[in-house]
Amino acid sequence: MSDVVDFLSSVLHFCERGDPLPVAFSKAKSIKRVRNVDYDEMFELSRKLVLSYYALEGKSARKKVTSFLNKGSKVSLPPWMSEELKELIDLDAYLKSAELGRYKWFRVNRILADEDDVLSSLETQGIKFERDEDFNYLFRVISGNITKTKEFDDFKIIVQDKASVAVVQALGPEKGDVILELASAPGLKAELIYELTQGDVYLILAELNHKRLDKEIKLLSTLGVDLGKVDFINQDSTRNSVLRADKVLIDAPCSSSGIFYKEPTVLLTLRDRDKVENFSKLQKLMIKEAFNISFKKAVYSVCSIFPEEGEVIMDEYVDKLMTTEVGGIEGYGKHKSGKLSRRYFGHIHGTEDFFIATLRGVS
Fold it and tell me: Where do the coiled-coil regions begin and end (predicted)?
């Protein structure tokens, strides 16, 4: 047991220093090996440890881990976050779904593989799945580890959350479109746009971070996208350089509060409201700048559960909003933009938490 305490204490130490959970876990493994342990189970235990962070007792990482092991896991949020969310959603159901985890979703990369062949192969490997009712090329994993298949290693299947897929569906890419995506990394939405249009599309992908942009280029090439049909731009999208596009996707940087169930270190960055308020300011600047572009349609989306990053911003653009119909449910009702936008929630849809709104174009 002492080995487990030491290991989890190391994980928590690195998380408190700002490392994402997978990085913290990897660092802990490099210095605190535990004998006769299933590391997949240990990772899940680490996830629940960090999810319980605000309920843990003690100041040191070791005392917090001891508290966790003695009392068990209990998903806990920063107090201000709990107060806000209990007025918006069924908080108990939401926290329970976070502890249990959400569904795993995947789609076949139809650029590189035949869907029927891939699905047949997965079935022979004992992977159980079902086709999604809203998006017929998307599948929900029922049992089995999709990431330990040859198809995953060969990039013939792509793990992508249903809410993320819904963002692309809201945009409605069509053959012949010129599509601009702002803050485009990591690139899965761009690949899906390319796939849905069977490559008959011109993509302009704008990303500020050099490293993320380089990774995006490599990923899209690996996934089979013809890079001759893509322009990559290293730019701050609050100072956009593109003048015209048929459609614009504004998948804005955000608090990432919608994925804390799988990356619980997000909660450690939400000790107060500052992060949400800072991202809200950035998002407003991006949308304002986007309206300097001549376009027919735009989609704004964030992986956030907070109205400050969704409905509050869209309330300023109600006259430009179009009804968004991509599954999910209506946005928060006390906001004017709520009925015209959509939200996905983990405790309702088994997905990441997403806000999606569609904007009428500017010519």
Answer: none
Q: How many residues does the chain have?
A: 363
Closest listed residue to residue 251, CA positions, set 193, 335, 174, 198: 193
pLDDT tier, 363 (very low <50, low <70, confident <90, very high otherwise): low
The percentage of residues in the chain with a pLDDT greater than 90, rounded to a whole number, is 94
Q: Is the peptide bond before 20 cis (omega within 30 degrees of 0)?
A: no
CA–CA dist 255, 277 (Å, integer): 9
Task: Count, in order, helices (H) and strands (E) of the chain.
Answer: 15, 13
Q: Where in the chain is the domain with CATH 3.30.70.1170?
A: 105-159
What is this structure's pTM? Answer: 0.95
Q: What is the structure's pLDDT at 35?
A: 84
Q: What is the dotted CATH code of the domain comprising 105-159?
A: 3.30.70.1170
Residue 1 scores a pLDDT above 70: no
Phi/psi at 225 (5° precision):
-70, 135
**CB neighbour class for 107 (10 Å; exposed up to 12, middle 13-18, buried from 19):** buried
User: What average pLDDT does this structure show over 87-113?
Assistant: 96
Q: Which residues, at least 6 apart from 300, have a Cβ–Cβ distance to it below 8 Å?
A: 250, 252, 283, 287, 313, 314, 356, 357, 358, 359
Q: Which two tokens stand for residue 90?
A: 């069924």
Secondary structure (3-state) at 103: coil
CB 223 within 8 A of CB 108: no
Name which CATH class applies to 162-362.
alpha beta
In whole angstroms, give the CA distance from residue 189 to residue 326: 15
Checking if the pLDDT of 362 tops 90, the result is: no
127-160 residue pLDDT tens = 999 999 999 999 999 999 999 999 999 999 999 9
Instruction: Calculate the alpha carbon distances from 255 to 40, 78, 93, 192 in Å.
Output: 27, 14, 21, 24
- Mean pLDDT for 317-343 is 95
